[in-house]
Every structure is written in C-alpha cells, then in structure tokens.
Amino acid sequence: MRNLEFKEQMREYSQWRAKLIQTIDMYQQWRHRYGLQDTQSDNTILNILSGLKSDRITLAFAAEFSRGKTELINALFFAETGLRLLPSSPGRTTMSPTELFWDEQGGSYIRLLNIESRLEDVSLVELKQQPNRWKHIPLDCNSPAQMQEAFMELMATKPVERELAEKLGLWNKREAAEQGNANPDKVDIPCWRHALISFPHALLKEGLAILDTPGLNALGTEPELTLSMLPSAQAIVFLLAADTGVTKSDLEMWRSHVFKASSGSKQSVAVVMNKIDAMWDDLAGEKGYQNAIQSQIKSSAETLKINEKAIFPVSAKQALLAKVKNDADLLERSRLATLENYLANDILKERRTILMNAIIRDIGFMVNESLSLTDSSYSNSISQLEEVKKIDFENKDMTGKLLAEMRDKQNQYMATVENFQTSRQVFLTQAKMLVDSFAKERIDEIVNRTRDDMAKSLTTYSMKQNIRKLFDELRDLLQESVDLTNETRRLVKAIHKKFKDEYGFVEIEPQLFSISTYQFELEQVFTEGEAFRASAKTTMTEQSIVINKLYGTLIAKAQHILKQAHDDAATWSSNVMTPLMHQIKDYKKQIDGRLLMLRKINDSKGNVAESIAVLEVQLKQLRRQREELAMMIKLMRMEGLQFDNK
Asked: Quick check: 52 and 20 in contact, CB under 8 A?
C-alpha cells in the first residue's frame, strides 16, 4: 500500500468522525427541541463531542539507538517534502522524546523543555500546560530547509558536571567504568528533556500524532513515557536491526517497556525489522536473501515470544529514497507496503471500534431511553384519540367516567412522585457514600502521610517498605469503593424494578457504574510500582530523587485514576435516576393533557371535533419526533453504532 492510500484511510477516518459528531450534535438538538434535555445529559454529550473533536491517532515508535527509527518515520509520513525532514544522519540522533502533531490554535512550532526540569517535582502533563517553560522555535512550513535546520536542535547536547548528570539519571558510574571512563570531569548530556512539534502536515491535520522515543535510557529515566504515553498510544512500532537481530538492550527495552505498556490492553504492537538492505547480497542471490530475512524473523519471534506475522521486514532508508525519487521498483524492494497496510487498516479499524464502544457506553443508554419514551408517548396519544372518538360516536356520557379515571391516575401520580422522592433520597445517601470513598481529601491524606514517612526513612529498606505500605493503603481504599459500588448497583436495580412493577413504567435497563476499569488501571500502576520499588536502580539512587520520581509519575497516575473514578461516580449518580424522572414528567404531561381536554368537553367549552383535531395535530408532531429520532439512529448505525433497540 502506498503512502497516498494511508492518507486516504486517515481522511476517510476523519470524515467518519466528522459525520459522527454531526449526528450526535443533531441528537442533542432533538432532545432540546422536544423538552427531553437535562443538565447531566447535556454535559455528557458535550464531553463526547469535545473528545471526538480532539481525537488523535497516536503511533509510538520505540527502539534503541541506531535502529533507523527516525528514518522510518520520515519514510512513512514525510517523504513528500523531498528531504530527510527529521534528523537521522549516521552518528546523530534525536536525543529527547518527541511528539509530532498539529495544533490548529498554536500554529507551527517546536517547543523544547530543558533537561534540568527532571529535578523538579512536576509531571510532564503539568509542564505541557505551562508554555512559558518551553523554548519556542517558530517553523516556516513554506521552507522545508528552515524546518530541517530547526529540527537539528533536537540533537543538541551540552557538557555538565558529572554530579549533575548523575542526578539527572544520564550518567552511571558502573556503566562509565565498563566503558573505561569512570571519573570524567564533564559529561555530555542532551539539552532537552522533551520536544513538542506542531506543523500542518496533511496526516497530522487529519488527527495523526507521532511519539518518537529515543533509546532505552530515555524510557528508563522518564517513567511517564512508560506509564502514560506509551500505553495511551493506539499502536507501538518497535524497531530492530536486521543485521543484529534482538540484542540484549533490545530485549530489555521490549520486556521492561514495550511489552509491559501493551500488556493486558487491546493495543497493537508491530515489530519492524529495519535495515534489510544490509542483507542484500548479489552473490547469495534472491533466494539466499529471502532465506536470510526469514531466518532472522524466526529467531527474533522466538526471542520476543511473538507470532512471526507481527514482524515486518523493511528498509526505511531505501523506502525514503524510493519515494523521493518516485522509484516503484525500489519501493517494492524496501517492503514498506506491508507495514503501511497494517497501519492504514488494522490500527485505524481498531481505533474506530474503541471510539464506537465508548460512545455506545456513554450515550447508548440515552438513545434507548429516548426511543422508549417517544414510543410510549406516541402509543398514549393514539389511545387518547381513540377515547375521544368514542365519546363522539358512541357515548358522550363517557366523559364523566373518563374524568374520574383521570383523577384516579392523577392521585396515583402524586403517590408515584412521593414514592420516587423517597427512593431518590435513599439512593442519594448511598451514592454519596460511593462518591466520597474516592474523595481527594482521603487520597491526599494517605499520599502525603506516606511521603513524609519516606522522607524520614533512615534506610533504603525502610523507604521501600513505606512505598509498599502506600500501595497497600490505596488498594484497601479501592476495595472499600468496590463494596459500596456493588451495594449502590443493587439499589438502583431495585428502584427501577419497583417502578416498573408498581406503576407500569417502561422497562429501561439502568446504566450501572463499574469500577473494574479503575481497578485494572491501578493494578497496572501497582505492578509498575513494585518493579520500581524492587529495582537495583532505586537502591542506588539518592533518596530524594527516588521519592520525586515516584510521586511525579506512579503516584500522580494513581491519583489521576482515582480522581477519574470520583468524577465518573459523581456523574453517574447524577444521571442514573434521570430516566425515571423523565417518565414521571411524561406521565404528568399525559394526565394533565387528558384532564384538560375532558374538562373542556364536559363543560361544553369545546366540542369533540375540535379536541379530535388538536389530538391529531399532536399525534402528527409525535410521529415527526419519532421519525427524526429513527433517522438519527439509522445514521448512527451507518457509522457503526449498534444500540439495544433494533
């Protein structure tokens, strides 16, 4: 598959997303038009729309130095510039993790974060919200040469005192001794900790984002890359060199970072065996060349414990050259097409599925509720019209009888409202306990107390024990929330069942809060934390640096997960009773409408024919309301969303 086709796939994905946004926006307007809106539902829909509009397809590239990773990115995405846009010359390499995307508001730029920021107790996420902390370099997108020159800054290094390099995690005495330079006065280190690059490339404008991670050392010293950025990417592309196969450092990166980042998730991982052109051998012939590649694939698959089909042999260097020169034969020999096909189809398809599942989870319940309420109103209007027609053609004396029935229903409504308020109060008490179980104050108390205990620790062993104690206390807090979640779910089901059985309400399966996602994410953090706690590097690192790293990454992520659980529980508890409130509101509207019409007929303030005409107009409006909703549901299904009601 040519790069042009990948662009077309991205464009098609972008158009699909735009249509989905348009349809969901139409649905929100429909709710407002027919008085079915409420604050919680509006906020949910607005959050969905905001998420869809800012959605990005993130591809993370990970490899040790000199595997040709940056060259592969150039070949895949930026060959049309006619230049090696991102710096990837021999002996020169990108030194800092780099994110490439399009920031429509900010325009074209490179932002660089100084390496010394590693010493601060501030996460990358927070620093990204502080543009003044970054060096800003404007990019002239009409001048590929200027952009190429600006990108060279990514490779900048500087000499610093050995002690500073050690504190930054960029120098290790044991490793330096192995290289025969144990006591240097100065150490060359990267100038930049992280780079953000925004420019209006066609793929980036369609929502593609690229994460370029430089080497094992960067992953090891920047835990946020492993804990947050790699796992959040839609796919990780891991590079090997065909001439070396899986080296010791490749295997360490794979086990410690790449495989761990994707473990337990649906995230795709592609292993690219680059530099197959190094194996081109005219003497061995084509058969010998193919056998050599297959042998290396088989060996690498066995070492990494993956399927051979997950390994893509390519020559990024030759692919870039072929695209620049428009050489179809050389491009075919580079074997880039198979990898492009995988990225264009498998990754985008998987991302679409993830988005669809998230939307169904968040608004599928609302759509099904809207359908049930609209059908109920339509059926009741038909029933009311038939009643009034009987008064006209069969027995006008039925009016009194029907009035009495409506008054009974009005009394029943008052009992329903009273019962609902009682049930709602019981639920709100239970829901508050659930939401409070995730309260920031509770979490901060545990986090701050254990941090103080760590700082007071006199030995590394004592500090490590306090780290374990912190994880155990957060795990206990979550278990308490699990128990409260189960109780609250049972209560919600019981309330919905009661109103169905006692008052004949439409059965709408209540949306239930689930804590399993947060449990899974926290356990991943705890697993990573245990590895951090037990590592030899933690033992050898200065205590204050260990604590800062722990709290700036692992604990910050745990706090973020628990905050998300708190916010989601609060949103759910505000929303889950809304369907019953809508049914009660609709029930009252029907009763009031019938009573008013029957009284007018009974008091001779209007004749039956006029009432029939009014009801027929109402029925026509309800029919249009149903047709509009059915049309939107059809559009959503065309975009891949399948709700419960068929």
From this structure: yes
Residues 355 and 52 sit within 8 Å (Cβ to Cβ) = yes
Angstrom distance (rounded) from CA 39 to CA 33: 15
Q: Cα(433)–Cα(5) distance, rounded to whole angstroms?
A: 53
- Backbone phi and psi for residue 305, each to the nearest 5 degrees, phi listed first: 60, 50
Q: Is residue 48 scored above 70 in pLDDT?
A: yes
Is the CA virtual torsion 79, 81, 87, 90 positive or negative?
positive
Flag whether pLDDT at 525 surpasses 90. no
Separation between Cα atoms, residue 493 and residue 507, nearest integer Å: 11
Gyration radius from the chain CA atoms: 31
Q: Which residue has the higher pLDDT, 533 or 227?
A: 533
H or E element, residue 413: helix 398-436
- CA gap 91, 93 in Å, rounded: 7
The whole-number pLDDT of residue 336 equals: 92
Q: Is the pLDDT of residue 285 over 80?
A: no
How far is the C-alpha of 463 from the C-alpha of 456, rounded, in Å?
Answer: 8
Total residue count of the chain as it appears in this document: 646
CA–CA dist 364, 358 (Å, integer) = 9
CA dihedral (120, 126, 132, 136) positive or negative: positive
CA distance 8 to 279: 33
- pTM value is 0.71
CATH fold group of domain 3-354:
Rossmann fold (3.40.50)
Output the average pLDDT for the chain: 80
Contact 501, 535 (CB under 8 A): no
Residue extents of the structural domains in the chain: 3-354, 395-505+514-579
Burial label, 459 (beta-carbon count in 10 A; 0-12, 13-18, 19+): exposed
| Distance separating alpha carbons of residues 209 and 347, to the nearest angstrom | 13
Selection from 311, 164, 204 nearest residue 250 by Cα: 311
- The two beta strands, 109-114 and 192-198, are antiparallel
Integer angstrom CA distances of residue 468 from 444, 465, 474, 544? 17, 5, 10, 17
For residue 606, pLDDT beyond 60: no
pLDDT of residue 1: 39
Of 69, 163, 81, 151, nearest in space to 109 by CA = 151
Q: How far apart are CA 375 and CA 275, in angstroms?
A: 63
Q: What is the pLDDT of residue 366?
A: 83
For residue range 396-454, list pLDDT tens digits in order. 566 677 767 777 777 776 677 777 778 778 888 888 888 888 888 888 888 888 888 87
Burial annotation 206-218 (CB, 10 A radius, 16+ → b, else e)? bbbbbbbbbbbbb
Model confidence pLDDT, tens digit, residues 619-639:
899 899 989 998 988 888 877
Mean pLDDT confidence for 272-289: 79
490 or 413, greater pLDDT: 490
Measured CA distances, 394 to 269, 388, 463, 609 (Å): 74, 10, 88, 14
Sign of the alpha-carbon dihedral angle for 271, 277, 281, 282: positive
Q: Could you tell me if 208 and 82 are in contact, meaning their C-beta atoms sit under 8 angstroms apart?
A: no
CA 382, chain centre distance (Å)? 45
Query: What is the C-alpha to C-alpha distance for residues 270 and 340, in angstroms, rounded to an integer?
Result: 11
Enclosing H/E stretch for 212 = strand 208-214
User: What gap in Å lies between CA 267 and CA 351, rounded to an integer?
Assistant: 9
Q: Name residue 408's beta-bridge partners.
A: none
Question: Does 25 have pLDDT greater than 90?
Answer: yes
Residue 538, CA distances (Å) to 512, 544, 614 in order: 41, 11, 78
